[in-house]
Design a protein that fits this description.
270 residues, 13% strand, EC 1.1.1.145, Short-chain dehydrogenase/reductase SDR protein, EC 1.1.1.51
């Protein structure tokens, strides 16, 4: 397997792309969210890490630096907690420029005929209700302050094909893209952009816990089915896509689903 350095904290051109901006990232205590929080901070943003993993979240904020980051407990299935997280951010830092709705769970892995619908409800609550609450309250805060903000939602390649994830997860990620597309006109009237990022498989703690394998083994598995060889998809690559959509480099891009899959969904059709 080829190796790759994701360079999630690199800033080779010395240009801070998010200087002075304030971001909330849900699900930022680990995995893709953590990589994105670190990259945003490296590019000058102040980052609020919103998660339910308190110990991990506080540790990430401390390692980034408490002058550039803070932790806020937030269960995205509880709209009140999302609203309080937005209020906390605006109250502490005076503004909100970026909302990255990234919190997610895998959910039940069974097919439709054997699916536990209670677990389906939980999966939809995290991905769909949580994303809707994040969009709603971030956009309200941005509208109130006149901020031409950026909202980013984490979807998945599973939202493009039906064979790349469990049924409940696939359903939820389709809905995330639907939410994003439905919000484009409403938010655009206030100068607010909204987009999705859809990564292929990354060896996150969630993926590793599901498989029971070490990160290197999970990366090997994903690499085996990857189309683009010579590079291994890591959280830092996904974070770079989020950085682009969060920054002014994408100031006229809204309603887009940015796929980070090395061509898998183009080549491996169902």
């Amino acid at each position: 397997m080829a190796s790759s350095d994701s360079n999630s904290n690199s800033n080779s051109n010395s240009m801070l792309r998010l200087e002075g901006k304030v971001a909330i990232i849900t699900g930022a205590a680990s995995g893709i969210g953590e990589a994105t929080a670190r990259l945003f901070a490296a590019h000058g943003a102040t980052v609020v890490i919103a998660d339910v993993q308190d110990q991990l979240g506080e540790a990430v904020a401390a390692s980034i630096g408490l002058h550039k980051s803070s932790y806020k407990h937030c269960d995205v299935t509880d709209e009140k907690q999302v609203e309080e997280t937005v209020d906390y951010t605006v109250g502490k830092y005076g503004r909100l420029d970026i909302m990255h709705g990234n919190a997610g769970i895998l959910g039940p892995i069974e097919g439709v005929m054997d699916m536990d619908l209670t677990q389906l409800d939980r999966t939809l609550a995290v991905h769909v209700r949580g994303t809707a609450a994040s969009i709603k309250h971030a956009a309200r805060a941005m509208r109130a302050s006149g901020t031409r903000g950026s909202i980013i939602c984490t979807a998945s390649v599973a939202a493009r094909q039906g064979n790349l994830g469990p049924a409940a997860y696939t359903t939820a990620k389709h809905a995330v893209i639907g939410l994003m597309r439905s919000a484009v006109s409403d938010l655009g009237a206030h100068g607010i952009r909204i987009n999705c990022i859809s990564p292929y498989g990354v060896a996150t703690p969630l993926a590793c816990s599901f498989s029971g394998k070490a990160p290197e083994e999970v990366e090997d598995d994903f690499y085996e089915t990857a189309v683009l060889k010579g590079v291994v998809l890591k959280g830092g690559h996904v974070a770079q896509a989020a950085l682009f959509l969060a920054s002014d480099a994408s100031e006229y891009i809204s309603g887009h689903d940015l796929v980070i899959d090395g061509g898998v969904t183009v080549v491996l059709r169902e």
